[in-house]
Automatic annotation (TrEMBL):
Tree of life domain: Bacteria
Chloroplast as UniProt keyword: no
Metabolic or biological pathway: Cofactor biosynthesis; adenosylcobalamin biosynthesis
Keyword annotations: Cell membrane, Cobalamin biosynthesis, Membrane, Transmembrane, Transmembrane helix
Transmembrane regions: 295-314
Family from the record: Belongs to the CobD/CbiB family.
Descriptive protein name: Cobalamin biosynthesis protein CobD
Function noted in UniProt: Converts cobyric acid to cobinamide by the addition of aminopropanol on the F carboxylic group.
């Protein structure tokens, strides 16, 4: 990719991140929500209790997003740096969810500090898919902290990195894959087979980002009075025991950085999972959730800087033609 277009991509990622920092997710008409509604309607046509049907469903939707991204970049790329920035910025803004994640984490901490468990239970589904009705204050705190950790990678680091590496098509494909995983990737009786492809695609799409996030947690831990060495040790010793190849990395790093213990019995609407423990500290308190949110914000800022630098450095596509 010619240098002016790489600069335009970097400017677009920076602008999209700043927009997310200022505004967060729009409350109405969010394109990701619109994609989700379209995917749900499409599922009525494609659903069957087989992996093959799930592959067709996932490939069709993700392929459409990728093709849209390619067409948009080609249509505006002729304008050079300005055109690339003009399409990368809104795509980045739409894909990032880090600011809304942090705001929701802060709201959870406030409800728990006030002892308002009913409000905390009502808010939890906006963070994760666990059954809040069976959780006490300690369970709500752990669920929220684990969700803040995992989604720091999924909702911010991953889309920023994919934008740096592949521009608008990669951003759209990543966000689509992550949305489909949230919709059909869980192990319920309906989606064990149909959602297999979406879950595996999301695992692959988040593999690099989870490890970059883990490294940034190590670097940023002192911002919240945390331990870089503790984050590294928990990552290396505990992450591989987690059922997710990616969430385990990030949750373990957060646990070690904050000096708390995560994992254990985890109740979802469709099943109870007995997860291994991550970290060797005590169960997290509400103050630890607040620290986790601050750590997430620090990691998000560091990831945005990494993505901007990477987008300038990476070379993709054909080399620029020499002047005639």
């Amino acid at each position: 990719m010619p240098a002016p277009r790489r600069t335009g991509r970097a400017a677009g990622i920076a602008t999209g991140w700043l927009a997310d920092l200022m505004f967060g997710d729009p409350s109405r008409g969010h394109p990701v929500a619109m994609f989700g509604r379209g995917a749900a309607l499409f599922e009525r046509l494609t659903y069957a209790d087989t992996r093959r049907a799930g592959v067709v469903h996932t490939a069709a939707l993700i392929g459409a997003l990728g093709a849209t991204g390619v067409l948009v970049e080609r249509a505006t790329g002729r304008a050079g740096q300005v055109g690339v920035a003009a399409v990368t910025a809104p795509a980045t803004f739409v894909a990032l969810g880090g600011t809304s994640l942090a705001r929701t984490g802060d709201q959870m901490a406030a409800h728990l500090n006030a002892g308002d468990l009913d409000s905390a239970r009502r808010l939890l589904p906006s963070l994760c898919g666990r059954d809040p009705s069976v959780l006490d204050a300690e369970g709500l705190t752990r669920a929220a902290l684990e969700s803040v950790a995992e989604n720091t990678s999924d909702a911010h680091v991953a889309p920023a990195l994919w934008g740096a590496l592949g521009g608008v098509p990669a951003i759209l494909v990543y966000r689509g894959a992550n949305t489909l995983d949230a919709m059909i990737g869980h192990r319920s009786s309906r989606y064990t087979r149909f959602g297999w492809a979406a879950a595996r695609l999301d695992d692959a799409a988040n593999y690099l980002a989870a490890r970059v996030t883990g490294a940034l947690v190590v670097v940023c831990a002192p911002v919240v009075g945390g331990s870089p060495l503790g984050a590294w040790r928990a990552w290396r010793s505990d992450a591989a025991r987690h059922p997710s190849p990616n969430a385990g990395v990030v949750e373990a790093a957060f646990a070690g950085a904050l000096g708390v213990r995560l994992g254990g019995p985890t109740q979802y609407a469709h099943e109870l999972e007995i997860r291994p423990t991550l970290g060797d500290g005590p169960a997290p308190k509400t103050s630890d959730l607040a620290r986790a949110v601050r750590l997430s914000r620090a990691v998000q800022a560091a990831a945005a800087i990494v993505a901007v630098v990477l987008s300038v450095a990476v070379r993709t596509g054909r080399r620029a033609s020499p002047p005639s």
